Amino acid sequence: MSVVIVDYNAGNVQSVTYALERLGVSPVLSADPEVIRSADRVIFPGVGEASTAMRFLKERKLDEVIKDLKQPVFGVCLGLQLMCAHSEENNTDCLGIFDVQVKKFEPTLKVPQMGWNNLEHTTGPLFKGIEADSYVYYVHSYYAETSEYTIATTDYVNTFSAALNKDNFYALQAHPEKSGKVGERILQNFLDIK
Amino acid sequence: MLTKRIIPCLDIKNGRTVKGVNFVDLRDAGDPVELAAIYAAEGADELVFLDITATVEKRKTLIELVKRVAAEINIPFTVGGGISSIADVSALLNAGADKISINSSAVMRPELVSELAGEFGSQCVVVAIDSRFVEGEHIVHVSGGRIATERRTLLWAKEVEERGAGEILLTSMDHDGTKAGFANELTAKVSGSVSIPVIASGGAGNQEHFLDSFTIGLADAALAASIFHFKEVSIPDLKNYLKGYNIPVRIEK
């Protein structure tokens, strides 16, 4: 199976690569539209700031490429937020795959949320074999609101979308590559999606 | 619910763990990766690797170590010790470290915190603060806690937050090594005056000390070294103990 990690200079993709290698997959890091389009699975990672990331994607026309993908696509962390319609982070228009708003946490608790929090209301193939209330590792200051695309929630300040799904597009706010065995199972589940 | 984190700290010299590790089941008692894997399997929430290698040439071994840790360990880890430039941080993050921690270099040149946050994002910038109580004041110390600075701990914590630090690793030099408990009063003051997470460090001797660091010290995470290395406290036992006191902790089923 060919797995491509979208390379758009958005933080540390090395961890995602290592996590996939632990699952026996050798991913290719690429910003080449043809390589991305022809992959069996596409992972859209990201650590960083939304407007800078969107600018980078647009400059390389990767925004259109990603939106048009037909194979299973998995957005992680900032990748999830960029797949939404709009982010409050520097008032950024995003890809709009999910018609969902990304907002900043009200500082009633410490922001960023940093650490392990549990997944609730998980549904669908991404969470096959994942027990209720399993913990995943978060580092984020912005969150996607819950919507019809929500396939898991987590509570921090308020309830937010821990994961989203629409057609072939999947996304997780937490870092599966750093979430122990639970994270590895989620990554494996994504690879197994038909 | 966001859980309180338990963080073992490994001291590293020339790519090897430094003394004080008493794991009979280790094949290679000096291999940090093997020890890290055990902690990860036991339920550690994160790991900290503190490099105390003296010479620049031998620091290359740290990069190799970070690559091995990143390839094998599936929980987040922070690397600290001797980091003083964007180039240092870039090399460590590219090797697979999730966060870096800076200490003396930030005190000497506070702009470094802002520069690192701007370049790599606050999420990976941990500022370690070594504090000692001197004549009625909590004073920031550098160089492994040996040299006092002019800075007061609380003000310095607020400054690094404003400069973009993502987390504070607060070590009480008065408590470090005593096994008499964390500096809960100081930790609570720092934790209450910043909006970023605070890791309590220094003084852990038993399970109750961790409980106190969360309930009295208001810490978001607690770090310890020797008591884990010598198995005086095991991570699974500690987490079950904390759960019994309604502290939110991650226990994998």
UniProtKB/TrEMBL annotation, chain A:
Q: In which pathway does it act?
A: Amino-acid biosynthesis; L-histidine biosynthesis; L-histidine from 5-phospho-alpha-D-ribose 1-diphosphate: step 5/9
In terms of superkingdom, the source organism counts as Bacteria
GO-annotated biological processes: L-histidine biosynthetic process
Give its localization.
Answer: Cytoplasm
The Glutamine amidotransferase domain, residue ranges: 4-191
| Predominant cellular place of this UniProt entry's protein | cytoplasm
Q: Which InterPro entries match?
A: Class_I_gatase-like, GATASE, Imidazole-glycPsynth_HisH
- Which PROSITE patterns does its entry note? GATASE_TYPE_1 (PS51273)
Question: Might you give the EC number(s) for this enzyme?
Answer: 4.3.2.10, 3.5.1.2
Q: Which reaction does it catalyse?
A: 5-[(5-phospho-1-deoxy-D-ribulos-1-ylimino)methylamino]-1-(5-phospho-beta-D-ribosyl)imidazole-4-carboxamide + L-glutamine = D-erythro-1-(imidazol-4-yl)glycerol 3-phosphate + 5-amino-1-(5-phospho-beta-D-ribosyl)imidazole-4-carboxamide + L-glutamate + H(+); L-glutamine + H2O = L-glutamate + NH4(+)
Active site residues of this protein? C77, H175, E177
**CDD domains hit by this protein:** GATase1_IGP_Synthase
Question: Which Pfam families is this protein grouped with?
Answer: GATase
Alphabetical GO CC annotations of the entry are: cytoplasm
Q: What GO molecular function terms would the record report?
A: glutaminase activity; imidazoleglycerol-phosphate synthase activity; lyase activity
Q: Which UniProt keywords apply?
A: Amino-acid biosynthesis, Cytoplasm, Glutamine amidotransferase, Histidine biosynthesis, Hydrolase, Lyase
- Function comment: IGPS catalyzes the conversion of PRFAR and glutamine to IGP, AICAR and glutamate. The HisH subunit catalyzes the hydrolysis of glutamine to glutamate and ammonia as part of the synthesis of IGP and AICAR. The resulting ammonia molecule is channeled to the active site of HisF.
Subunit structure as annotated in this protein's UniProt entry:
Heterodimer of HisH and HisF.
Provide the protein name. Answer: Imidazole glycerol phosphate synthase subunit HisH
Which species is listed as the source?
Roseivirga ehrenbergii (strain DSM 102268 / JCM 13514 / KCTC 12282 / NCIMB 14502 / KMM 6017)
Q: What is the lineage of its organism?
A: Bacteria, Pseudomonadati, Bacteroidota, Cytophagia, Cytophagales
What gene is this protein a product of? hisH
TrEMBL record, chain B:
UniProt key word Cell division? no
Q: Which InterPro entries match?
A: Aldolase_TIM, His_biosynth, HisF, IGPS_HisA/HisF, RibuloseP-bd_barrel
User: Could you tell me what reaction this enzyme catalyses?
Assistant: 5-[(5-phospho-1-deoxy-D-ribulos-1-ylimino)methylamino]-1-(5-phospho-beta-D-ribosyl)imidazole-4-carboxamide + L-glutamine = D-erythro-1-(imidazol-4-yl)glycerol 3-phosphate + 5-amino-1-(5-phospho-beta-D-ribosyl)imidazole-4-carboxamide + L-glutamate + H(+)
Q: Which GO terms describe its molecular function?
A: imidazoleglycerol-phosphate synthase activity; lyase activity
Q: Where in the cell is it found?
A: Cytoplasm
| SUPFAM superfamilies recorded | Ribulose-phoshate binding barrel
- For this protein, the Enzyme Commission number is 4.3.2.10
Q: In which pathway does it act?
A: Amino-acid biosynthesis; L-histidine biosynthesis; L-histidine from 5-phospho-alpha-D-ribose 1-diphosphate: step 5/9
Q: Is Transcription one of the keywords UniProt gives this record?
A: no
Q: Which UniProt keywords apply?
A: Amino-acid biosynthesis, Cytoplasm, Histidine biosynthesis, Lyase
**One record GO biological process:** L-histidine biosynthetic process
Q: Which Pfam families match?
A: His_biosynth
User: Where are the active-site residues found?
Assistant: D11, D130
**Gene3D superfamilies attached to this UniProt entry:** Aldolase class I (3.20.20.70)
Its GO CC terms? Answer: cytoplasm
Subunit-level organization? Heterodimer of HisH and HisF.
Q: Say which family it is in.
A: Belongs to the HisA/HisF family.
**Known role:** IGPS catalyzes the conversion of PRFAR and glutamine to IGP, AICAR and glutamate. The HisF subunit catalyzes the cyclization activity that produces IGP and AICAR from PRFAR using the ammonia provided by the HisH subunit.
Query: What is the protein's name according to its record?
Result: Imidazole glycerol phosphate synthase subunit HisF
Species of origin reads Roseivirga ehrenbergii (strain DSM 102268 / JCM 13514 / KCTC 12282 / NCIMB 14502 / KMM 6017)
